[in-house]
Amino acid sequence: IRFSLNNDALTVNMRDNGIGLNQAQQRSGSGRGWSNIQQRLERIGGSIAIATDELVHKGTNILIRVPLLSL
To answer: In whole angstroms, what separates CA 19 from the centre of its chain?
Structure first.
């Protein structure tokens, strides 16, 4: 897990070398976890990107960006 902070955002990058996520299951609607995370991030101007390759088992990379608020 890597955290980076710059002038306008906090970025969290999580990477592993596991078997990857099953994208078909993610899209099947059997759970609300990923969509809830995405909706909450979008409400504050953030984003989430998930990259995985379940066919070659090279793991998963999740990148979350949260904008910093000016006070």
So the answer is: 17
- How confident is the model over 1-57, as pLDDT tens digits? 999 999 899 999 999 888 777 666 555 556 788 889 999 999 999 999 988 876 667
- Which residue from 69, 62, 63 is spatially nearest to 9, judged by alpha carbons? 69
Distance separating alpha carbons of residues 53 and 9, to the nearest angstrom = 27
Provide the whole-model pTM.
Answer: 0.77
CA R_g for the chain: 14
Question: What is the C-alpha to C-alpha distance for residues 10 and 29, in angstroms, rounded to an integer?
Answer: 29
Per-residue tokens: 12: 């969290």
